[in-house]
Input
Amino acid sequence: IQTTVSLIPEAFLSRLFADSEDQRCMRLFFMRSGISDTPLLSCVAIETLIDWCSRSDDPKVWAYVPQGLELWSSSSDTSSVTLCENAIKFLEAAPEPSVVLESFAELTNPSSWSGSLANILQCRTDAIGELIEHDRDDIANAAKEIHGKSMLLIERQRIREQRKEREGEQRFE
Output
C-alpha cells in the first residue's frame, strides 16, 4: 500500500475520498492507523498533497489529509515537540487554516503512550501554541483559539490522572 501511495498519490487520494461518507470514514480510519509507525501519506511530497487538495471539489479534504501526515517532531536533546515543516506548509496553503488547525488539535492524542497523557498533550498543544506568533493573522487567531480550548482539555485530563493516582494510592494503603 505504501508503494502505491508513493507511486500514484493522486489516484490513491481520489479513491480514498470517493464514495459515501461511511466508506470514507472507514478509509480514513485505515489512513489514520497507518502502516506500522509511519503515517500513510508521509512518502508523498507535501506540494503534491497541497496541489491535490487545491484541485479537489470537496473542501473537507483539507481537514482529512493531516490524518495521514507526520505532524509532530520531537527533539531528543530538549524533549520538546514542534510541528513538522510539512504540516506547517500544508496549513499555510489551506484556504481555511482554522479547519486544518482543528484537525491538528484532534490529532494531539497519541495512538499509544506510557506515562502521563496530559504531558504528551501539553507538548503537542504547545507546538500548536507556537503558531500564535505566526505572521498571518488568520493562522495566529485560529491557533490562539484552538490552544485555549486544548488547554482546558489538558487540565481535565490532569485532574483525571491525579484522581486515578490518588485512588491507586488509597487501595495500596
About this structure: The longest helix spans residues 137-172. The first strand starts at residue 72 and ends at 74. The chain has a mean pLDDT of 89.
